[in-house]
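Quick log. Single chain, no ligands specified.
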Amino acid sequence: MTLNPLANPKGIKLLCELCQKPAFIQCTKCRVTYYCGVEHQKADWLGIHEKICQNLIPLRQSAPFLPSEEERQNREKQLQTKKRSMIDLTRTTGQKLLFEGKHDQAVPAAMQSLRFAIDVHGLASIELVPSYLILGEASIGLGRLEQAEEYLAQAQWTVLKTPECSNAIKSKLYRNLGLLFAAKGEYDEALRQLANDIYHASEEYGTHDIRTSGGYFHMGNVFFRQGRMDIADTLYRQVTDIWYTHLFGIVKVRTRTPATPKGVGPLLVEMFDEQEETLDEAQEAEAVQVLNSIYDMREHQPNRQPEDMARVCHGLAMLYFVLADISKAKEFGRKAVVASEGHPDDSLSRSIIEFMKNCDRIPLQAI
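-> predicted structure:
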């Protein structure tokens, strides 16, 4: 839609959502977002705007007249809550797109998260770092290494001047620095940065957590590129075990037989003590990327161990079960059964067969 310049409120200059150049096209759905052309409108829609289009309306429309200070304060609190929710949504979406390899689409989501973070926390806050890191990783994926260095330098400077910075944020920073040095072919430095990532992630989450596993995975990839397959193999095995354990816990809760109530009060509460762990969109995409990458590597490995193949196949089967893709869950389940037949310990085979039975008896809509 071509804008009528005379319709601009009080002569305000309208800017493109992506490049901040003069805008001539308006989103006809929310009518509060503008673009310099169709190309940027399409890029923003694919990256994030489709998800947040309607959410932007109350955040960008002119504030209504409110007679009392209390009403104005309540409205401001509501807006701040909505903006914080938008930060979480846009960051999760950006991370999900990175794991899916859609680096160009991750940029609009990261830019939106950065804008909302600046609006809520200010220009110098540590809360901006996750957005810089998504932009940095997207730039690495697009081969724009100088741009990636700029984003990561900004993130690193903010971390250095924030003594109370969490280990979680430090972990993500070092992971991105590791990816940058790996992309530049500086493998020793990449390994040093990834070791820092693993240290800080372990301090924050523990050594056997899915949020720590990414450091092991990327370190394994570096050793793989160096042809040091014995070390890479060990790291891939550890990553598989971490995801396997996490997914096994989710599937166990989803497939358990409901207990029969025997009373009220504390007895009834005990039935619901075992809470299901969940995966957000970004973690789902990470699991798909990581486990499929390890599976592809295992499939082409001439001297692979049967248990390694069985566990990664069973891990993928459980993942697709959690994602409600029963067809793929059964496909990888069957591959896991075949692979486990070459392993002397039949406990793994029994676990896989029990999983396959659950796939058969649980309706898709119940997952």
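Confidence is low (pLDDT under 50) at residues 1-7, 267-272.
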